[in-house]
Amino acid sequence: MKRLYVGNLSYQTTEATLADLFGAVGEVTSVNVVTDRMTGQSRGFGFVEMADDAAAQQAISQLNDQVVDGRSIKVAEARPQRTFEQRDDRRPGGGRPFGQRDDRRQRSRPSGRGGWGRED
Q1: Of 16, 84, 26, 85, which Cα lies nearest the Cα of 46?
Q2: Are 65 and 73 in contact (CB under 8 A)?
Q3: What does DSSP assign to residue 113?
Q4: Of these four, 15, 21, 44, 71, which has the most CB atoms within 10 Å of its CB?
Q5: CATH number assigned to the domain with residue range 2-77, chosen from the 4 options 3.40.50.150, 3.40.50.10860, 2.70.98.70, 3.30.70.330
Q6: DSSP 14
Q7: d(CA 3, CA 5)
Q8: In sequence order, what are the beta bridge partners of 85?
Q9: Gyration radius from the chain CA atoms
Q10: Is residue 32 within 8 Å of 46, Cβ to Cβ?
């Protein structure tokens, strides 16, 4: 079983549309169009699972850049989903630990200019 990423989808593209499109190439196991949690609107991409690897490769070569619902779709092999621990490596604030001040604020300024670290 091979999972395919389908991108650049129109907001009007449904799971049934993708199932019919990919079903013409080979046996489709499942289809999922990713939607926004708040609005329920499509986020413009989805995933299709094909029953065998040969059909998946054929779907990539035949359907990539094909126009569906007025948009040229992108079809590629899906990357493995990252675990929570792998996603947690991103931190807010440009990579600094939360609450740590910018380095330039911690250094004292040269004398005569005023500001932090001034010794008079």
Answers
A1: 16
A2: yes
A3: S
A4: 21
A5: 3.30.70.330
A6: -
A7: 7
A8: none
A9: 25
A10: yes
Residue 37 bridge partners (DSSP): none
Q: How far apart are CA 4 and CA 64, in angstroms?
A: 11
Instruction: Give the SS3 label for residue 45.
Output: strand
pLDDT at 80: 87
pTM for this prediction: 0.69
pLDDT digits (tens, 9 = 90+) for 76-104: 999 988 776 666 555 555 555 555 555 55
Gap between the Cα atoms of 18 and 94, Å rounded: 38
50 beta partners:
2, 28
Gap between the Cα atoms of 80 and 17, Å rounded: 24
DSSP symbol at 89: T
